[in-house]
Structures are given as C-alpha cells and as structure tokens.
Design goal:
The chain has six helices and 16 strands. Helix 2 packs parallel to helix 6.
Length: about 300
C-alpha cells in the first residue's frame, strides 16, 4: 500500500537547498538573475482525478471541542464560492481556483467539495497508538460509498505511525471503490515545531518569532495547513498517477512542491508577507465563511511553474 506523505525529511532537504541558495544570492547581489531555483514542472500522468462533486466525510478520532470542529468544517465550506453571501478577499475559494486549473488542463470537471457525514470516535476504539493500516481501516468504515473522500483527524493525545518522525499527515486511496482518504493529526503536544509551523518555533533553522494563529488554536490552525496541503494533493493525485513531480513513491504534489511558503517574499524560516488581523494581530492570508481567517500554503501554478500565494 502506497502512502503519499508530507515528508519532514524531504521538506528539510528542500529547506537546506533553498537556504544555501538564498545565502549565495545575498553574497552576489549583482548576479541575482543567476540565483534562482531551477524551474520545476508538475506533470500530469493521465490518471484519474477527483473531479465533479466530491463528498467529504470526517472522522473525529479522540477528543475535539465544538470550537475546534467548527474551524475545520468552516474551512471545507469555504472552498466553494459562496453565492448567498459577500466574501471578503482574498478568499479560501480563490486559493482553490488554482486546483481548478489542474482539472481544466487535464480535461476534467471542476472539483466542488461538499460536506457529507461526520462521525465521532471520542473513546478511541482502536486505542491511542495507531498503525497506518489502522488509519486505512478507520477510513474504510466511515466511507463505504464509492467516489468519496474521508478525513481521519486524530486528537492531540493520539500517536500515529510516522507522525512527527516522517510526516505530518498523508493521503491514500482505495482504487476498487474509487475513494480516497486523508489523515492529519493535532501536533500541539507532540511536534508543533514540525507540524504547526509557522505558529510555533521550528525545531530546525532560524528561530524567528512564530506567527499568531488566526483562530486562536495553533494546533488546529496547523492542522488546517496540513489538511489544505493534502487536500490539494489528493484531488490532483489521488491514486498515484495524477499530477506530481519526481518519483511516484515520494511525489511532490500541488502544495508539497512549495514547502514553507505562505506569502510573497518567503524564504526558509520566513513565511512571507501575510495579512494581520487588526484586532488580534494574528496572521492569515485568506478569508473564509462565518468571518473565519486562515493561513493557507502556496500552490504550484502550472501556468508559471512557480509557487503561487493568495497574497
């Protein structure tokens, strides 16, 4: 079973590469035109994509408060343009438009996220230490219908195989049912420096001041970043033969090709120029429904072969 991960090791290698390149550029300002990262290209490998109406189910594994759940649910609801209410800009739905260009370029329908059923396993029926295959089993129990997507979200006191050591989340699929799932954990008490950056000081690299979490919960706001990254990768590469760069066993996808970038001018250790809430001072780059604010990762723009941010 192949797993598609947000790899901490891969992100660290990319971090070190760009940091060294940035240092070289600082030392040779007159040659800045030569100090650009090599162009990348995410190639479409002609596989099935998650197009059209995509129902998303959520399994809350462990303890999540109503406030935490609402932050994540509102993010999913924000992905589609809201016809019945005026949306502030920049918006979550504008961020999602980059993914729609992937679908269009592949000759597919636009992907519209709809919220399906929600399940709660507050007592952790399989325990608080999970193997990857157990996450797969949980997803299959929740999503018995073909063509859907399941989010398996684990609470802060649940440990999942590979969490913090090699990944902050992963996506996988069941080709027989044409369905996919995403797992993301709350890292607040396990590895916030890895999986909740830039809302927490990083374990490696420059120790800059962390940004303020837009919804006041850096564990959940960190989950939003990882959910968004994996959602972009799942829709455009659900079965390992969609859009990706590099090896199919460790692919760089729509968001994972742009690690650590949230605004213009980003470089290793600096998230970029993002917006600040005038009341709380928290950082964000996209507005959502119900007055929500989110910090979302850059996505690889197929038209420019560069990482694109909403601000």
């Amino acid at each position: 079973m192949a797993f598609f991960q947000i790899s901490c090791k891969l992100s660290l290698l990319l971090f070190l590469f760009h940091f060294n390149l940035f240092s070289l550029c600082l030392g040779a300002r007159k040659l800045t035109s030569l100090c650009q990262p090599p162009p990348m290209a995410l190639t479409y490998h002609k596989g099935t994509l998650l197009e059209g109406t995509l129902p998303v189910s959520i399994l809350w594994y462990g303890g999540f408060s109503p406030a935490q759940k609402s932050v994540i649910v509102d993010f999913l609801l924000s992905l589609n343009p809201q016809k019945h209410q005026q949306s502030a800009t920049p918006s979550v739905s504008k961020w999602w438009l980059t993914i729609q260009t992937y679908m269009k370029n592949a000759g597919k329908k636009e992907t519209h996220i709809t919220l399906s059923t929600q399940f709660s396993d507050k007592n952790c029926s399989l325990g608080k230490i999970l193997k990857k295959h157990q996450v797969f089993d949980l997803a299959q129990k929740v999503n018995s219908n073909p063509g859907g997507l399941t989010l398996v979200l684990t609470a802060k006191d649940v440990a999942v195989e590979g969490f913090c050591m090699s990944s902050c989340g992963f996506h996988d699929s069941n080709p027989k049912k044409n369905s996919a799932f995403i797992w993301v954990g709350n890292s607040v008490s396990q590895c916030p420096g890895q999986c909740a950056w830039p809302f927490h000081q990083p374990i490696y690299g420059p120790q800059t001041e962390p940004l303020g979490a837009p919804n006041g919960d850096f564990g959940v706001d960190g989950m939003i970043i990882n959910i968004a990254s994996l959602l972009a990768g799942t829709v455009t590469n659900p079965f390992g033969n969609g859009y990706f760069l590099g090896s199919a066993d460790a692919p760089l996808e729509a968001a994972s090709a742009c690690p650590g970038v949230y605004g213009e001018g980003a470089y290793p250790g600096y998230a970029g120029e993002v917006l600040a809430d005038p009341t709380t001072g928290a950082s964000y780059n996209a507005h959502g429904v119900n007055g929500r604010k989110y910090l979302l990762p850059a996505l690889f723009d197929l038209s420019t072969s560069k990482c694109s941010t909403v601000v």
